[in-house]
Specification:
The chain has helices spanning 21-29, 51-64, 70-81, 98-103, 134-145; strands at residues 3-10, 16-18, 35-39, 46-50, 83-86, 93-95, 109-116, 118-123. It has one domain (3-145): Chemotaxis protein chec. The strands form two sheets. It has a six-stranded antiparallel sheet. It has a two-stranded antiparallel sheet with strand order 2-6. The protein is of the alpha+beta class and 146 residues long.
């Protein structure tokens, strides 16, 4: 499952937002019943994981951690502590809890960004400028692909 797109949207006063139709259709086509929301580890945005993708992520993380190691167990706890199951309503809206909106500095205007198997939700202003300069981007891509 892959998502691709950069779509502007708006949250309402309660924090509800329509998942863009292109993403909704893909989720329905794949039979996804729920989403998991968490703040991104590295960027100031939110990430929506389809349920099956979330389950794979958790399994992969768990396989790399020793549950009998205190520090590793704390890492696992923190990862799941910042996650919440989200359901789409019949009209394709999700409710983003206020604490998540605050974590990612999201007000009203947002951008949905399809990133491989996940959907990121950014404050619109944060994506007005490139995340990486064009020169650095081309240099890094070249390094990676050589």
């Amino acid at each position: 499952m892959q998502f691709l797109g950069n779509i502007e949207a708006k949250t309402d006063a309660k924090g509800r937002i329509f998942v863009p139709a292109v993403f909704r259709k893909r989720l329905q086509l794949e039979g996804e019943e729920y989403l998991v929301l968490r703040k991104d580890i590295f960027q100031n945005c939110l990430v929506l994981y389809p349920g099956s993708v979330w389950e794979n992520e958790i399994a992969q993380l768990r396989s790399r951690l020793n549950k009998w190691n205190k520090d590793q167990q704390q890492i696992f706890r923190q990862f799941v502590l910042d996650a919440e199951r989200i359901e789409m309503d019949a009209s394709g809206r999700i409710l983003i809890p206020k604490r998540y909106l605050q974590m990612a500095d999201i007000d009203v205007d947002v951008r949905f960004l399809g990133v491989d198997e996940t959907i990121e939700i950014w404050s619109k202003g944060k994506l007005e400028h490139p995340l990486v300069s064009p020169a650095e981007f081309s240099e890094k891509i070249q390094e990676l692909m050589e």
